[in-house]
Each structure stands twice: as structure tokens, then as C-alpha cells.
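Attaching the record inline, Q. Sequence:
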Amino acid sequence: MLPLEIAFEHRNYFPSFGLFLALVGGVAHAGSAFKHGSVLSRRWAVLILIPLTVLAGMTVQRAWIWGDLKRIALEGIAQHPNSLRAHLTQATILLQTGKFQESAQVMHHLAESHNPKNRAIGFYGVATVGCIDTNQAAPLLMNQADENIRAPVTLFDVQALDLLLRASRDKRCEGVDVARILRTLERQLALTSDQPSTDGPVWRLHLLAASYYAQIGDGESALRHAELAWQPTSDVAAGSVLAQLQMQVGEHADALRTIDQIASRIGTRDELGRAEVSRLNQLLSTSQGDVQ
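Structure, as predicted:
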């Protein structure tokens, strides 16, 4: 087992095929040697069985680790002390189990990383824990995050900002409100000029902005970001948000066009997608009726 970055062990599968093929042949030879072979052949069989036993033990140990998410996170940190994924996994587990101080410590560790992107996510995390635990977080954390955000935008950035926005909204976090977080989000988006607008992290960050601008009553900004979020690579959710915002401002023709685009992208077996298109058409019909 090679200690690769957590959750990427599948990169071992193809190159290890030859090793497993040789081991299978060795096992077959060992069985034959014990039955019919000479003393020398039996010695070779023992030598073949030794690495096989070691690998079997390693497999049992790896399965034990993979049987618990906490052990996965600890193993990831042990093998890769600078792994962002491993630290975020551990911090999230601690947060979900109510161990707020321990979770904050993991995030503080990230905030001290040599990597500025990791530092920014660490500051997001410290603020998130504060919002959930005490309903408040230091405004300085967002300023520190602003100083460390870097291109390109990644899914880690999106996930960290999403969690912070939800914590701030649900807990009405003092010191770090939704509007303040959205300013940081805008700074992050300003760095995406060299990234294709179809990149998942980019359109997802626009979708996140659209959703929360709508919640704080800034319909103009919400619509602007929703239009940027609706890309050829986007999920149905992005189109749904855009269509609903277009209805809210009376752009019914544009909303119908967006719904038709959504319908053209979903497969014939996508029942959830077809149900969403049906729901949007009903909303559009109601919205048009209200105008009339």
C-alpha cells in the first residue's frame, strides 16, 4: 500500500495489476510445490507465501482504517501532514460531533500553513466554528482570509465558503455576517479571470453568490451571478436558480428560455430533472398569471 494523498489510492489499481498477477501465479506454484515438489521447490513456495502474508496483513490494516471516517482522517494527516483534504475532513468530523475547540485547533493549524490558499481556508474554518459554537466570530478573520486568497478557485474554496455562509446565516453570526462573507467571495471571483467560466469551482461559486445575494434581498447581484453560473457544464440547480430569479424580476421570456435549456440537458430517465422542469413551468405559469 503506497501512502498517496487521501482518497486517491485508486491510482495504484492499474500499475499493481502485474504484481497481483505474479502473486496469483506464485500461489498456484506454491500449492503445487507443497504437493509434488522437491525440498527446494517447497522453500521457494515459502518465500512466495511470506510477502503474500505481509500484503494480506496490510490489507486488513487498511480495511480497518477505511472502516471509520475518523481513522481515515487521522491516517491522512499522519501520512500527509500538509494535506488540506485530511485536515478539513478531521475538522468537519470534530465539528459534527460537537468538539468545537478541537475543530478550531485543526483550522488554526491550517491558518498557519506555508500555503496561502490553505491559510485562507483555515481562517474561514475558524470563523465557521465560532459562528456555530458561540454565534460570533472575529471580523479580523475575514480580513486575514482576504489577504491570503489566491487563484485558482478550487472546490475546497467553494465548500469552505458554503459552510461559512450557512453557519453565518443559520446562527446570525455576530462579526461575520453574510454580506461580509460575500465581499470575500467577490474577491475570490475576481481572481478567476484566467479560469474558464465552465470550470466547476467557478460556476459553483457564482451559484453560491446568487443564492445568498437573493437571501439578503440584493436581487440585481443575485441575477448577475446566476447568469454567470449557468454554463454548459452546470448542474440543473444553476439553471433552476436563474429561471426563478428571472421570474422574480418579470423576465418571463428569458425564464422560459432557461427552462427549455434545462429540459434539453436532462436525460429521459432523469425523473428528478423532469420533475424540476415541471415545477419551474408551473411557477412560470403562476408568475405570468400574477402579472396579468
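Residues 83-195 form one domain. The radius of gyration is 26 Å.

More tomorrow.
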